[in-house]
Amino acid sequence: MQIYWTKINKIIEETPEVKTYLLDRPQDFTWEEGAHTHFALEGFNADDKPNRSLIRHMSISTLPSENSIGITTRIKEQCSEFKSILRNLEVGNEVAIFKTYSNVPLKRENKNVYLLSSGVGLATFRPLVLDYFERADNVNQIHSLNIDASKDFLFTNIFKSAADKKFVAQFVDNRKDYYEEVKHLAEDKTGLFYIVGSDEFLAQNIEVLREQGIKPEQIMLDKHEEQLSKFLSSNLSV
């Protein structure tokens, strides 16, 4: 396993609780849109066994063409040891990334694509949307639906509706409106539905989509193969 040690080159305060850490891109490091990586803090591998409290599974919120590795995360006032350390890091500090993989690249199958996300989960979809803007080949259109109770919506400079790009960006701040809209989107029986959020959020969305007749193979999750079957099984249990 290759561990890349790299430096923070910029910290962006997206909202009062959400920050993006832009990391220098190592020369031979590359990734696909929708990728996730293991993001680790200094000292995680100091002992014989890795200190898992200093490692998190994070989405990469940038494209390789942006030449920085973006890690976007929510840091609340009361937070874990990991987030507490992360909050105090500065430009120039070193972090590690390893085991990078993409479960949710943008499928180009001449279908409508629906991106369903909760809160900072939108970070996973930012590179998919940018990739689509750069090259719309074999994607009919994209509709993004994000729920965030804080109303501090992310990436509104990118996630804004544009008819000429066949792109719709929708933000809601309550569950009732959100799931009503999911049902409406599921009227498209051939669409592809990407979902990013907590396990509970995934399960609820899958249940609504399946009730509307959407098939498991139309649902994309940022999960490994063995986890997918658990989420997409017919009994809908988590």
From TrEMBL:
SUPFAM superfamilies: Ferredoxin reductase-like, C-terminal NADP-linked domain, Riboflavin synthase domain-like
PROSITE patterns: FAD_FR
Signal peptide residues on this chain, from the entry's feature table: none
Molecular function GO labels: oxidoreductase activity
InterPro entries: FAD-bd_FR_type (IPR017927), FNR_nucleotide-bd (IPR039261), Riboflavin_synthase-like_b-brl (IPR017938)
Domain FAD-binding FR-type intervals: 1-107
Protein name per the record: Dihydropteridine reductase
Organism expressing this protein natively: Metasolibacillus meyeri
